[in-house]
Amino acid sequence: MPFKNPHVSMVSFSIELRGADVANFMIVESSLHLNPVHPQYDQAAVSRLIEAARHYLGTAGNGSMGVRLVFKSRRPTLVRRSG
Questions:
Q1: What distance lies between CA 78 and its chain's CA centroid?
Q2: Taking a C-beta distance cutoff of 8 angstroms, is the pair 27, 11 a contact?
Q3: In this structure, what are the phi and psi dihedrals at residue 65, rounded to the nearest 5 degrees?
Q4: Number of Cβ atoms within 10 Å of the Cβ of 37
Q5: CB 64 within 8 A of CB 14
Q6: What angle do CA 6, 37, 73 make, to 5 degrees?
Q7: By the 8 A CB rule, do 30 and 45 touch?
Q8: What residues are paired with 8 via a beta bridge?
Q9: Closest CA to 32 of 55, 53, 6, 13
Q10: DSSP conformational letter for 19
Q11: What is the largest CA-CA distance in the chain?
Q12: Could you give the angle at the alpha carbon of 46 between the alpha carbons of 43 and 52, nearest 5°?
C-alpha cells in the first residue's frame, strides 16, 4: 500500500551504509517548508505528516525504518539555455 498525504509529491526508499551498520530510510518529498524560521512553516501540518509517516511504517511492519523529510517546491524549475 503506498504512502499518501496531500503534502507529499514522492516517496522513495534508501539503504545507507555507515561502517558496518546498515540503515533503511523512507524518503518523503513534501511541499511543506521544514525550516521553522521560514515564514510559510506550518508546524501543525509538519507534525501531522510526521505522525502519518510513523503510522504508515508501523502498520507496514517497518517500524525500525527511519524517515527523512525533504522539502520539494511545487514550482517548476526554470532552465536557462545559453547560446
A1: 23
A2: yes
A3: -75, 140
A4: 6
A5: no
A6: 40
A7: no
A8: 30
A9: 6
A10: T
A11: 53
A12: 140
Which pLDDT tens digits describe the chain residue by residue (83 residues)? Answer: 788 899 999 999 999 998 999 999 999 999 999 999 999 999 999 999 999 999 999 887 776 789 999 998 866 555 566 65
Contacts of 34 (CB under 8 A, 6+ apart): 41, 46, 69, 70, 71
Q: In whole angstroms, how far apart are CA 69 and each of 20, 34, 77, 80? A: 25, 8, 20, 29
Q: Where do we find the cell 510513523?
A: 54
Those residues with Cβ within 8 angstroms of residue 5's Cβ, 6 or more apart along the chain or in another chain? 28, 30, 49, 52
Report the alpha-carbon distance of residue 58 to residue 26 in Å, rounded: 12
- Predicted TM-score of the model (pTM): 0.79
**Per-residue DSSP letters for 28-59?**
EEESS---TTSTT--HHHHHHHHHHHHHHHHH
